[in-house]
Amino acid sequence: MGMSVTISVAAADDQDAAEQILKLQYLCYQSEAQIYGDYAIEPLTQSLESLRSEMAAGTVLVARLGTEVVASVRGTVDADGTARIGKLIVHPRMQRHGLGGRLLDAIENRLGADGAAKSFQLSSGHRSEQNLQLYRKHGYAQVDTERVNERLTRVTLAKDVTAEAFVTSA
């Protein structure tokens, strides 16, 4: 009988979770680096100290299979009420089973539960079709594009917070 995946908040002082997230991030962003021909992207060069700062400043959720972190997502809510979601990562062997969607729903519920968030926003590269498809499936619509360099255009997607989204969250 297999184990089930559990989603929880990664505590800012959880050194083991931070190390596992950073290793998973490095693994997951290899495909993005390949798509865009750029292995110097921030997720591949981020330091453990920088990740720990993000964990302290915002909300970081992890999905664990037993004690192994197999997925993660980060989010913060700005003063203007925009909940910014980033670095949604799922271990390659766990992809295409709904875990990314579960994590996206969980971070939205977490960031929107106290009423401070008025909208959700995230971004992806223009060639990252699986990511864009997931976001659209979860109600996000394109609101902006920004040409970062000759290889990458960043696509920003957003959606409004709806009260009914949090009725069933616990």
Give a description of the structure.
With 170 residues, the protein is an alpha+beta fold. The protein has one domain (5-166): 3-Layer(aba) Sandwich (Aminopeptidase), CATH 3.40.630. The chain contains 5 helices and 7 strands, in the order βαααβββαβαββ. Strands 1-2-3-4-5-7-6 form a 7-stranded mixed β-sheet, with helices on both faces. Helix 1 (15-36) crosses helix 3 (48-57). The longest helix is centred in the first third of the chain and has 22 residues, at 15-36. The chain is globular, with a radius of gyration of 16 Å.
- Sheet having the most strands: 7 strands, mixed
Q: What is the 3D shape? A: globular
The CATH superfamily is known as Gcn5-related N-acetyltransferase (GNAT)
What helical percentage do the residues reach?
25-40%
Summarize the structure.
With 170 residues, this protein is of the alpha+beta class. The protein is 35% helix and 31% strand. It contains 5 helices and 7 strands.
List the keywords:
170 residues, alpha+beta, Aminopeptidase
Secondary structure layout:
Layout (H helix, E strand, L loop, with lengths): L4 E5 L5 H22 L5 H4 L2 H10 L1 E7 L2 E10 L4 E9 L8 H14 L6 E7 L3 H9 L3 E7 L5 E8 L10
Parallel strand pairs: 4-5
Antiparallel strand pairs: 1-2, 2-3, 3-4, 5-7, 6-7
Helix pairs in contact: 1-3
